[in-house]
Amino acid sequence: TRVAILISGRGSNMVSLIEAAKAPGYPAEIVLVLSNRPDAAGLAHARSVGITAHAIDHRAFPDRATFDAALDAELRAAGVELVCLAGFMRVFSAGFVEAWAGRMINIHPSLLPLFKGTHTHAQALAAGVRLHGCTVHYVVPELDAGPIVAQAAVPVRAGDDPDSLAARVIVQEHRLYPAALALVAGGGARLQGDRVVIEDDGA
Ligand code: GRF
Predict the structure, then answer these.
(1) Atom of ligand 1 nearest to the CA of 88
(2) Which of 108, 132, 137, 174 is an active site residue?
(3) In this predicted complex, what is the ipTM?
(4) What is the distance between the alpha carbons of residues 96 and 180, in angstroms, rounded to a whole number?
């Protein structure tokens, strides 16, 4: 499966996907990295390991639909079959999401449907939950909604602040996203209506 990763910044989840995809038999190949921000640190890393990577600066486009059309054209030109959002901080037009329905996944740093949007670690601390974590889900027009592929949980510890909690969650993100991409690209997870069905291995 030919995969593109969309980033806006650091790209640590991108790195974990690129590393995982090197394994023999991994069902996805990372063929393209795109960023809406020219200064995204992840772009240089992707290039350094030989992956085509460039910025499509959203500020150069008059509106969301035009930017999304440029993104769509790049993805199609590269023969991309599946899109992974990894810290991509732009909301898509409904048309773009529909065009990639069932072929686009995202990682979000909370146990959805709790704590959508930004500052999820601060939200979790404010709510007083004892478990927090991350979620990989299919992308639908509604932000941070969509059928859940996989989740990982971490404890909230006494004395945590948003940074210490984020540091515990990101370790799990780096494990979860490659595993979830393998499930989706390898056919182990399938969309059935608004649910993800996980194929069991007969065990
Ligand atoms: C991650 O916490 C991801 O879940 C969230 O934004 C952060 C991106 O980090 N959507 P990175 O760019 O992958 O390092």
Answers:
(1) 10
(2) 108
(3) 0.97
(4) 22
